[in-house]
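Input (structure):
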């Protein structure tokens, strides 16, 4: 399975960086996880990466914050299904329904396509879903987070339902219990991760630099 970071606080040359996150997952279907803050920046980066809106079959939104859903209109089309936490406002869900094939409300853990699962809606204050991706051969899993508002440690525990943990990718927010990352074999701190540089220094053999344009094979 291949992941391409489309939107992030950092970016490779020729791509635009911005506060937000989006990642394309190339599995049985092409799945876009989150859409960044700006439709213009998302569209620019997609064009430079050769990603067509019409090729995206599923969109998964982690949580209802602008830096994760702001670019949504740029990628909605009549043949796409959009997975959202059930806590999304009725207005947000209604707006998506007008432009997409379907809105799928997520509450508990579920399969999206073979090898790609959702943790279900986690958290008490800010509710958020993360994805769990099976590595080649299905022997272990990688957790993909938006901002990890429910706590990265809680998301990792939820990911264990689907298999042995291999890695974590995405925004880790203020997660500071960095010793808990010791069990992982791959770590890619993105977007809002407060302790990104500390993680990179602490785990130089495991840590992968994140940024728009990066490709991660799992």
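Output (sequence):
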């Amino acid at each position: 399975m291949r992941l391409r970071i489309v939107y992030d606080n950092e970016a490779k040359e020729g791509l635009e960086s911005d506060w937000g996150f989006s990642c394309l997952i190339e599995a049985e279907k092409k799945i876009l996880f989150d859409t960044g803050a700006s439709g213009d920046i998302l569209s620019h980066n997609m064009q430079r990466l050769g990603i067509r809106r019409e090729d995206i079959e599923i969109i998964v939104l982690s949580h209802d914050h602008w830096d994760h859903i702001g670019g949504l209109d740029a990628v909605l089309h009549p043949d796409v299904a959009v997975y959202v936490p059930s806590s999304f406002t009725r207005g947000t869900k209604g707006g998506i329904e007008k432009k997409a094939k379907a809105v799928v409300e997520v509450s508990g853990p579920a399969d999206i396509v073979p090898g790609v699962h959702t943790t279900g809606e986690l958290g008490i204050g800010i509710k958020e879903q993360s994805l769990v991706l099976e590595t080649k051969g299905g022997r272990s899993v990688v957790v993909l987070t938006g901002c990890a508002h429910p706590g990265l440690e809680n998301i990792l525990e939820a990911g264990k339902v689907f298999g042995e943990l291999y890695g974590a990718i995405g925004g880790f927010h203020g997660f500071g219990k960095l010793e808990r990352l010791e069990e992982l074999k791959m770590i890619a701190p993105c977007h809002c991760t407060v302790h990104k540089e500390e993680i990179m220094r602490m785990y130089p053999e495991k840590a992968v630099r994140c940024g728009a344009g990066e490709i991660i094979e799992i």
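Notes: The mean pLDDT is 97. The two ends are 5 Å apart (CA to CA).
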